[in-house]
Amino acid sequence: QQQQQQQQWQRRRMLLQWCPSAAEMRRHWRTFKAVASIPAVVYYFLYLLFSVLAVAVSPFFNAFHLVYVVMHSRTLFFVVQAASSRAGQIGATLLLGLVTLYVYSVLGFTLFQGRYGSYSFG
C-alpha cells in the first residue's frame, strides 16, 4: 500500500511539472497577443480556418477566399479602405434611404389605397 501511495505521488508530481506557472501563462499570453496583433498572421490563420471549414462543413466557407482578390489587388484594397474609413457616413446615407423608402411607401399606400386589392394568400 505504501508503494501505491508513492506511485500516486510520483504521478501527481509529473502532472504538476506539466502545468505551467502563472508567470509562464502570462508570458504565453503576451506572446499570443503580439502574434495576434499582426494582420497578416490573423489573415492567414482565418484563411486556414475557413479552408478546413469548407472541407469539413460546407463549401460555402470558400467565399472567404474571395478576400484574397481584395488583398492582392491594389485598386480594390484602396476601395475597401476608403469605404471602411467612411463607414459612418455610408451608414447614415443608408438609413436616410430606408426612411425615404418607408415614407414613400406609406404615402403611396394612403394616396392610392383604392388601387390595392385585397389578396388572400394560402
Q: What string, H for helix and E for strand, traces the elements in order? A: HHHHHH
Bin the helical content. over 70%
Described by strand count, sense and barrel closure, the largest sheet is: none
The value of Rg in angstroms is 29 Å
Sum up the overall morphology in one term: elongated
Please work out how many helical segments DSSP would assign. Answer: 6
On the 0 to 100 scale, the average pLDDT is 85
Q: How many runs of DSSP E, i.e. beta strands?
A: 0
- For the record, give the distance between the C-alpha atoms at the N and C termini, rounded to a whole number: 78 Å
Poorly predicted tracts of residues: none
Structural class: mainly alpha
Strand content: under 5%
Q: Secondary structure elements and their pairing?
A:
Elements: H1 2-18, H2 22-36, H3 39-56, H4 67-72, H5 74-85, H6 87-111
Describe the structure concisely.
By secondary structure, this protein is mainly alpha-helical.
Description:
By secondary structure, this protein is mainly α. Helices cover 76% and strands 0% of the residues. The protein is built from six helices and no strands. It has helices spanning 2-18, 22-36, 39-56, 67-72, 74-85, 87-111. The longest helix has 25 residues, at 87-111. The protein starts with a helix and ends in an 11-residue tail after the last helix.
